Amino acid sequence: MAEKINCAVLGLGRLGWLHAANLAERVAGVNLLAVADVVAERAADFAAQYAVPLHTADIDAVIEHPDVEAVVIVTPTTTHAALIQKAIAARKAIFVEKPITLSLDEARTIDQLVQQANAYCQVGFMRRYDPAYYAAAEKIRRGDIGKPLYFKAVSRDPQCPPEAYIRDSGRLFLDMSIHDFDIARFLMADEVVEVTAMGAVVKNAFLQTYADVDQALTFVRFANGATGDIEGSRNAGYGYDIRAEVVGTEGTIQVGALSQHALHIFNKRGATHDIFPGFIERFASAYVLELEDFIARLQRGDASPVTTDDGYKAVAIALAATRSFDEQRAVKLDYQPV
């Protein structure tokens, strides 16, 4: 590809706007040629603020534009499969936010199409690019804690998303815990083979309408015999709390901290510090790093580091956890060959 990659962002919600702003201002080697959103005014506002040449409500027109070389898909998950297929047909490189789809069959189909077309498709599991998670993975690979035995993750959102979002989210295990399922595979370098999930509505009663929960726990088993547990909560009123731990035969490694800044206040009432308010603040650097890697790999002609197979397997684990919760039993994973 050219020295600078002509890129377009599809979808300008909160995360889409951030991705587009990062491409416009913080990522080298890219020309943000176009932005598209079903709300035309939103696309126009972004284009005016960041001097983007093309803006439209017609997402298909952007995918088909001959000068667009790569697309970043940040639209609702229900639209991902169709947009990925259109982008493959138009021979565009693809970055797509997680989850790749809400359906296991669709996820499998997308993976097959990507492989058959030899297309570039990178899935947006940004925690892999967070410096602390990345460093932890490197140290685990190096053997600093011996053989990994147990994985533990805590993911707590400060509040529940609104009902309009929950309606099409795919439920907590697929929408939220999928990040932890992916980072479990990444840190443990192993496949999840069984899940046992439980959960409840402890605060947000409207979730019952959608058979969803705001507090969940998933016990996981890995192929090599290791185990783990993953908490997902939408009730942490104190802030955004994301942590992980891997226990090994020779030590333990912990990732994550509550403090947004290295700043503490001490007075007669005690000691206090600020807390990350949300995911954008906590993973600000990771969102930039994953797009930097996306563009750099396109320039070099390298393969995707977070593949549609990774996306497919994360969806498989999440849906198995959902099934486990619904049926109140352990569910074994059967990764059908793609």
Automatic annotation (TrEMBL):
Which is one Pfam family of this protein?
Answer: GFO_IDH_MocA
Question: Which UniProt keywords are listed?
Answer: Oxidoreductase
| Occurrences of domain Gfo/Idh/MocA-like oxidoreductase N-terminal (ranges) | 5-125
Is Oxidoreductase included in the keywords of this UniProt record?
A: yes
Give the matching InterPro entries.
Answer: Gfo/Idh/MocA-like_OxRdtase_C, Gfo/Idh/MocA-like_OxRdtase_N, Myo_inos_IolG, NAD(P)-bd_dom_sf
**Example of a GO MF term:** nucleotide binding
EC numbers: 1.1.1.18
Using the record's annotation, list all stretches that form the Gfo/Idh/MocA-like oxidoreductase C-terminal domain: 138-333
Enzymatic class: oxidoreductase
Going by the entry's taxonomy, the superkingdom of the source organism is recorded as Bacteria
Q: Which family does it belong to?
A: Belongs to the Gfo/Idh/MocA family.
Q: Which NCBIfam families match?
A: myo_inos_iolG (TIGR04380)
Q: Would you tell me the protein name for this molecule?
A: Inositol 2-dehydrogenase
Annotated source species = Ktedonosporobacter rubrisoli
